[in-house]
Amino acid sequence: MSDVFITENFLLENHAAIRLYHEYARDMPILDYHCHLPPRQIAEDHRFANLTEIWLYGDHYKWRAMRANGVPERYVTGDASDFEKFQKWAETVPKTLRNPLYHWTHLELKRPLGISDRLLGPETARGIWDECNAKLAQPDFSCRGILRQMQVVLVCTTDDPADDLEAHRAIAADRDFSIRVLPAFRPDKAMAVESVEGFNAWLDRLGAAAGIDIRDFTSFLDALHRRHDFFHAMGCRLSDHGLETALAEDYTESEIRASFARIRSGSPLAPDAIARFKSAMLYEFALMDHQKGWTQQFHIGALRNTNTRRFRSLGPDTGFDSIADGPLARPLARFLDRLDQQDRLAKTILYNLNPADNEVMATMIGNFQDGQTPGKIQWGSAWWFLDQKDGIQRQLDSLSNQGLLSRFVGMLTDSRSFLSFTRHEYFRRILCNLLGTEIEKGLLPRDFDLIGGMVQDICYRNAVAYFGFEGIGPGPRG
């Protein structure tokens, strides 16, 4: 047994912070506008066989920690039993002290799994395993049950343009399920021209989905427009792009057409041609989004799949990515400015992975606000390697110093796990502690209606107003 770790006032260091969290933030609904949840599991109301399936499958955060703790790959992504994998994770957890995984793990055990009287470790693993597995067998712990427990009103998944969205169609048709689940348009594969074979195979999938024989650049764009229209009809209102850096190379239409013809014929492109092609496609997608009134998101700064040996054996997205350090400010400004000059700049959310770019982002968004849409250009919440206490605080501080924290659209999970909604709680506690501490120091007025109202805006209401999803209400007021 242990003293309770995740108390009701976890991360709340003073009376003002406690009041802000419990009276204003805690009960706000969750609008998770960017995640990687599998929509098919929601459509089928999937029930998880055990704690490993819901907690460790696909979680490269935990995989990285286990490898760093000396756990062989067999117990990470290999053929060990689910309990053996969980046991190795339980052995790793005590070694994650001061890593955000320690906080996240125990937050998730408390909500929704109801365990707060024990720390996870090798001695408690079997008891926690049995207790959680018994709960996962109950209806309240199905995919939909967990969404309801966590007060989620809407999630946006991440979907390839060639996806059929049948799971989304099934969810939308189910009148007994009130939580909105919408697709988001993620066309990274439309720019992935480094691999001739992979790009052409994806073009065939795209063409089949759009009902178009993709022979040239014109038919390629036609297919993408058809899929963009289809996503819009399915409720999609956001796009998302994963970029190592911003792209804004000069190019001509004839160059792009020639590059497309070359790669469609099976010949690789030179690095400068790849950069021009990606720049052209990023611009085309931005035009599509503006025309439909969507919000475009750019996740910038991940250096992906750096371990060749592991990439060959395990594939992408398995925990071998890091922060990139390429030039960002000038190409990002060029890209946004080109759209702004034409009055075709959609609502935009920028995310950086390199903390060295915090002030770049915080100042960049101020360059392209239009004086009409509050917070039109957003600097998104601390992402991936930065979505921990220090990273969240630094993002909030930089945004406050350079822009309007009060207009921030707040937190998202960016996760594949149905247990990750406690990241919203984590963010809310950090936000309330930051503001509460400044109230106690006299740096902010002791006006809880004023500060608490801003907290509720950042936690939920700003996102409701910004995205304008139909049927989503403003939530309670403190």
Q: What does this molecule look like?
A:
The protein contains 19 helices and nine strands. By secondary structure, it is of the alpha/beta class. The strands form three sheets. A four-stranded parallel β-sheet has the order 4-5-8-9, covered by helices on one side.
Question: Can you count the helices?
Answer: 19
Gross morphology is: globular
The total count of strands amounts to 9
Largest sheet: 4 strands, parallel
Mean pLDDT level: 97
Q: For the CA atoms, what is the radius of gyration? A: 23 Å
Task: List segments where confidence is low: pLDDT < 50 over at least 5 consecutive residues.
Answer: none
Helix % is: 40-55%
Structural class: alpha/beta
Topology pattern, helix = H, strand = E: HEHHHHHHHEHEHHEHHEEHEHEHEHHH
Descriptive keywords:
globular; 3-stranded parallel sheet; 4-stranded parallel sheet; 478 residues; single chain; 19 helices
